[in-house]
Structure formats: C-alpha cells, structure tokens
C-alpha cells in the first residue's frame, strides 16, 4: 500500500539490496507480490510473531536476510539494538548471515556503514550501534541477549515441542518495547513438533499479533501434478528450477521411498520423511470417534506392551462392530517423577497429555504396575474380554499385581519375531487402508504410529523395529498384537499365565 510502513520498507530494500546469488546475482532486488504482501502483514498492523511456512527453494533465506538489514541499518533500525537469526545447525545459521553479508558487500552505501565479521557471523552498524549475529543450537549459550528482532530459520527442523535456543531467545526479548519474531521454515514432520504447535495455536486466532502465512498442498490434492506444486510454491515461476522439481515429482511417484521427502520439502506437508509403517494421511482418515457401546458389548481384544522402568506402558483395547469396523481405546501409563525431563528427552508433550487425560501418571520413578493391573480388571468387568495379548517383557511383575487383586484374566503370549508379527502387521495395515478402524484421534497413539517403522527378513516378513524408530512405538506394538490375535479368530484362549482363584 502506497505510503504505508511496508511500502517504505519495500522501497528501501529495492534501493539498497542486490540479489546475492543465482542467475540474477548483482542485480537490484525486485520484490515479488508475495514478498510485498508479507511485508504488509508484518509491518502495517501490530505484529509480535510472523510465521511464514512454505516449501524449499522459494527464497526464504533471502527474504530473512533482507528483514535483518531493514532492522540493522534501514527504516526499522533502533539505536543500539541487538538482532539475531537462529538455526538448528551451524551450517544453517551461516546461510542467512552469508546472504546478508553478500548484500552488504555488493552495495557501496551499505558497505560504508556495515562491517561484516565472517568468523563471528556478525554484522555491525557502528553509527547506529546495532549488531546482528547468527546463532545455532550448538552455540554455547543464547542467554544474556536482549534482541529486538529474532529470525528463526528452519524451525521445522526442531523435533518435539521444545527448543532450548528458541526458548532462550524468546524469553530474552522481553526487555524490548516492541520486539518482533519471524519464523521462516518448511513444515515440521508431526503435529507434536514445535513449529506445528506454534502454527496450530496461531491459527486459532487467540492473539491477533501472531500471524501465519502458510503455503502447503492439501492432503487430498494430486501430489505429483504441476498445478498442485505451483499452487503451494509462491515462487515456482521465479526462483525454482521447474524441470528439476518435476523430475523430483516423477521420482516420488515411481518410488514410494521418495514420496515422504517430496511431500515435506516440495509440497510443505507435515510428513515424516522416515516413511512410517502407517502414513499420517492414512492414520488421520481413521480418527472418527469410537463408539463405547461396541467396546462394552462386543468381544474385546487387548494388546499390552509393558515398559521398562521409565518408558510408556501401552494398553490398547479393540472390538469390532457389526459393520466390521474396529473401535480402539488406548490407555497409556508413565511415572510421574521426572516427567518434564522425559518430555524434553523424547521431544513430546507428556505433561500436556497427562493434563488432557490421555496419559495416566503413576507415583514414583517407574511405572507402577498396580495401576495397569487395576485397569485390566476394570476392562474385564466392563466388557466381554476375549484375550489380553502380551509380550513377555516384565510380565512377571504384572502377574504379581494381578495375584494381589485375586483375579483370573485371559492372558495370551504373543511372539515378537517375524513369524507372529508379520501377519499381525498385514492385518492391521489392511484395516487402516480400508478405513475399518476408529481410534478417536488419541494423540499418544498417533505419535506411536508416526514413529513406527518396519524391518524385513530375507523372506519379506515384517515386524516393527524399535531400534529404527524415531521415538516411542509402544501403542502401535500393542495394537498390532491385539489385531494379530483377533485375526486368528481364536476364542478358546490358551492356558493363561495368571490364574488366581479365591478359595
């Protein structure tokens, strides 16, 4: 808008900044319509946080560099202010700095006022007392800073809900009068990652000073067509090599192993590039609410994956309705002690899930199996319990708790090798693909399936591989065991390991 703050900033950028790299290197910057729109969103109304998420190769880092120069020596500069860009790796942090430094060195006016320090990744405007420094998560510390502007570059690389560097910088800007944070990144793989949490919260609109611009292909759009790619890449016809991008599309269409990366990096979708056993799209299509009556009246199969001392214990109950749909209720248990530390270690919000009722916390430093035993007994009282299918790990501890409760439960051991797990995974995968599962959107179960990957033996048999998983998979393992046993249509349970009869 002519005469606005954003128009003034756009004019300054086009006057002093030159294209630092590529086929137009050295030429004056000419902002695209999208870039002008971003400037308007940031500067023409009050903004505390601006999130711009779009696929790779759309000029994100160049735009971030120009914003930093605006605040270092341009119309947005404040005397004696600190500016920072932040990235998860030293190499990523260097990208924004190098682009900004190249712009400075290409323009005589900027060179006269700004001094680059390549070793420190720092730009200084001595006349205004402003300093910009690039930081990475492997830097010694970000504490002690008081930035007026923070550019978080590729925050989508943060796995889990927290980042020490992000938290340190965001809390440090509290001393400034009108601090501004900018996040420019491709999407994170999962809903539980920091960037996803920030985007989803911003889209709720609770804080009007937090704004989001998101370029992502809809999950139901044909992923490999050029129209889909162009629609979610604002600079497809400006900065991108269209021939190379379409080759990536053809490769991803031909090779399933390349599809996840293509969806994340080119379509900017939340997709885990590790290719989980069940894709996010397939899982989410089965998120309809469960019918408690099915679990209360139909035969119920329970899968039980017991934990080591500090891990999750998963208990997954499932029953089939008359239409052949399996309704799934998942219970998870974790020790209350050290919960915040484990949330940080596993990079998932256990504390939030506990507050929301998805996770049962037991007292002490390890999972108290008395709570698990009590829940199993409650399930047996509430429904027609056909079998509790278990992995032998730590089963003796659960046996002792069940004996104390003086209950007889139908426990059935389920092998964890390829012979038992491969048919179970085949059955579970088929149910997901055919849409015959209702899991109610349980976020912990969702995390487990997002982390679950398979390994194969020479014959092509499959099992879930905890060593290759990106996080906890206990819920997926328990569900697979329950379905695997139910698929055999066994109603006569083998001799249980726990039989305790009063009198």
Number of separate strands: 17
CATH superfamily of the largest domain: P-loop containing nucleotide triphosphate hydrolases
What is the CATH-assigned architecture of the largest domain? 3-Layer(aba) Sandwich
* Proportion of beta-strand residues: 15-25%
Low-confidence stretches: 490-503
Mean pLDDT, rounded to whole units?
A: 88
In which range does the helix fraction lie? 25-40%
Rg over CA atoms, rounded to whole Å, is 27 Å
Q: Which topology of the largest domain does CATH recognise?
A: Rossmann fold
What spatial form do the alpha-carbon principal axes imply? Answer: elongated
**Alpha plus pi helix count:** 19
Lateral arrangement of strands in the main beta sheet:
3-4-5-2-6-7-1-8
Verbal overview:
Helix 15 crosses helix 16 and helix 17 packs across helix 19. Strand 16 and strand 17 form a beta hairpin. The protein is 39% helix and 18% strand. The chain is an alpha/beta fold. The protein starts with a helix and ends in a 16-residue tail after the last helix. Strands 3-4-5-2-6-7-1-8 form an 8-stranded mixed beta sheet, with helices on both faces. Strands 9, 10, 11, 12, 13, 14 and 15 form a 7-stranded mixed beta sheet that branches. It has 3 domains: 210 residues, P-loop containing nucleotide triphosphate hydrolases (Rossmann fold); 49 residues, no CATH class; 206 residues, 2-Layer Sandwich (Nucleotidyltransferase, domain 5). It contains 19 helices and 17 strands.
């Amino acid at each position: 808008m002519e005469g606005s703050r954003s128009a003034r900033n756009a004019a300054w950028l086009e006057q002093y900044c030159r294209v630092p790299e590529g086929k137009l290197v050295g030429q004056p910057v000419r902002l695209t319509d999208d870039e002008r729109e971003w400037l308007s969103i940031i500067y023409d109304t009050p903004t505390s946080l601006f999130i711009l998420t779009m696929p790779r190769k759309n000029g994100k880092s160049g735009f971030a560099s120009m914003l930093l120069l605006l605040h270092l020596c341009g119309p947005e500069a404040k005397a004696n202010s600190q500016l920072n860009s932040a990235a998860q790796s030293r190499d990523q942090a260097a990208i924004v700095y190098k682009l900004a430094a190249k712009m400075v060195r290409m323009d005589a006016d900027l060179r006269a006022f700004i001094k680059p320090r390549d070793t420190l990744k720092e730009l200084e405007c001595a006349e205004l007392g402003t300093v910009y420094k690039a930081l990475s998560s492997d830097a010694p510390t970000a504490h002690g800073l008081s930035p007026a502007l923070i550019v978080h570059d590729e925050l989508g690389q943060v796995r889990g809900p927290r980042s020490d560097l992000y938290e340190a910088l965001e809390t440090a800007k509290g001393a400034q009068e009108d601090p501004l944070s900018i996040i420019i990144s491709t999407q994170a793989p999962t809903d539980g990652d920091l960037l996803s949490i920030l985007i989803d919260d911003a889209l709720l609109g609770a804080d009007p000073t937090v704004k989001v611009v998101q370029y992502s292909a809809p999950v139901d759009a044909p992923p490999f067509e050029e129209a889909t790619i162009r629609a979610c890449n604002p600079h497809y016809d400006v900065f991108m090599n269209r021939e190379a991008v379409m080759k990536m599309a053809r490769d991803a269409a031909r090779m399933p192993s390349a599809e996840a990366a293509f969806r994340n990096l080119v379509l900017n979708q939340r997709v885990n590039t590790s290719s989980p056993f069940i894709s996010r799209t397939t899982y989410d299509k089965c998120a309809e609410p469960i019918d408690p009556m099915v679990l209360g009246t139909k035969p119920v199969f329970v899968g039980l994956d017991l934990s080591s001392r500090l891990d999750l214990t998963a208990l997954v109950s499932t029953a089939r309705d008359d239409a052949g749909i399996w309704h799934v209720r998942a219970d998870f248990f974790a020790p209350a002690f050290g919960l915040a530390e484990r949330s940080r270690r596993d990079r998932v919000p256990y504390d939030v899930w506990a507050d929301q009722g998805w996770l049962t916390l037991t007292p002490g430093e390890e999972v108290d199996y008395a709570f698990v035993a009590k829940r199993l007994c409650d399930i047996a009282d509430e429904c027609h319990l056909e079998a509790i299918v278990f992995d032998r790990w730590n089963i003796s501890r659960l046996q002792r708790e069940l004996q104390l409760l003086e209950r007889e439960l139908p426990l059935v051991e389920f092998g964890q090798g390829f012979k038992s797990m491969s048919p179970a995974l085949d059955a579970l995968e088929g149910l997901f693909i055919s849409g015959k599962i209702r899991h109610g959107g349980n976020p912990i179960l969702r995390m487990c399936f997002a982390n679950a990957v398979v390994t194969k033996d020479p014959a092509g048999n499959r099992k879930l591989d905890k060593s290759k998983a990106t996080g906890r998979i206990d819920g997926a393992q328990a569900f697979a065991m329950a379905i695997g046993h139910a698929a055999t249509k066994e109603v006569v349970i083998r001799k249980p390991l726990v039989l305790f009869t009063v009198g």
